[in-house]
Design a protein that fits this description.
Radius of gyration: 41 Å
Number of helices: 1
Strand content: under 5%
Keywords: Membrane, Transmembrane, Transmembrane helix
Distance between the termini: 105 Å
Helix content: 40-55%
Amino acid sequence: MRNDGPPPRRVTHEKQLRVGSGFFGRLLAVIVGAVVLVGAAMLSLILLAVLFGVGTIVAGYIWWKIRELHGQPRAFSDDGQIVDVEVTHKDSRVGDSRRR
């Protein structure tokens, strides 16, 4: 295989954009970096506040439900104390030592 044609030309760019090469480029990089840093800090604070609020609401709901469950036994007695009761059947004999 022969390649008799002219050699391929190199692609060159006439105008080169060099960011950060001079004083203004570095100044722009510092300003953009500071803006990104402040934006990230603000976003993290907002996210932290939202997560704290949601966590507080969930914890309050769980506390409220547990409090409600603790109050249920009080609804069935007058003074909220537990009463031990022994149940005997009508047809059982007095002094029956057999376990049921």
